[in-house]
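Table S2 (text version). Query chain:
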Amino acid sequence: MKTPIAILGATGTVGQKIITMMKDHPLFEITQLVASSKNVGKCYEDAVIWREKEELPKSLCKIKLISFEDVTATYALSSLPSDVAQIQEMELAKRGIHVVSNASAYRMAKNVPLIIPEINADHIGLIKKQDTKGKIITNPNCATVFLSLGILPLLSVGEVKHISTVTLQAVSGAGYPGVPSIDLIGDTIPNIGGEEEKVESESKKILGGLDRFCDFSITSHVNRVPVAHGHTVAIHAYFASDVTVEQVQVALLEKMKQFPDLYKYHQDPFRPRPRLDLDPLDQRAHIGRLKQGDAPNIVGLVSMGHNLVRGAAGAAKLNLELLHKTLKN
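Corresponding structure-token output:
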């Protein structure tokens, strides 16, 4: 028998992507869908404006939307707004329901794991310090994912002292309908409220130890750009000693061997590009533009990926699988 899961925020952009990615999972079955109070009692097909390319799963069309109080599934995958998540995710955990959250509410809580499994799966051990019957784990901000995955191979090259990064973030990162077209067509917006703080602090938590942040500093500038899907992150790494592009290539290829589905390496100097390189269920970080900086201890690269998949729904899927395996053992 498959383990039942509930989707919190099922009608939203990330909720729909979670449904698309989890509908045929061999271990889990979507049995409950949760939405705002105005939609409780409606059939899912009547409440949702379905925007995924794949058709709405027929098995879910007639499921009645429920309230948070009615959730009984073993796991809840949350794509709630942060203010709602702050209350409801903890209430579910107190009732014994395990929460895998895409919201920012508990990412920086001391005893809550913030996980990218290929980087810090061991942080799952933090759930032992949670005093609720159900446990909460989180996946990062969408830009944080591609920054952290871009940094990962660099850590085996030498001692990193500082990371400087600039993000080009897709409109869908703001949810639907995103940013008003009059603000973005033919333009960029050189700030996203609260985003730089998330990118910097979350990356330090992920790349650090169980009870400490990483030792190097991170400075970011974030931008909203007129791209539908796909966050691009330009990274410059400053090392304690000299490094070469060839060393970074070797380290990246080693990570690709270790995690075959984690990276796509582009040697074309005009790649990666969101429109050309991403597919609707793409879980990879696309790496390109490896270059030597203007000092021998600096290297640069670009990391790009699908913000709704590996940056949100796909990250929750991987973290659910990790949590389930951990709890079974």
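Notes on Table S2: The chain has a mean pLDDT of 97. Residues 22 and 235 are 32 Å apart (CA to CA).
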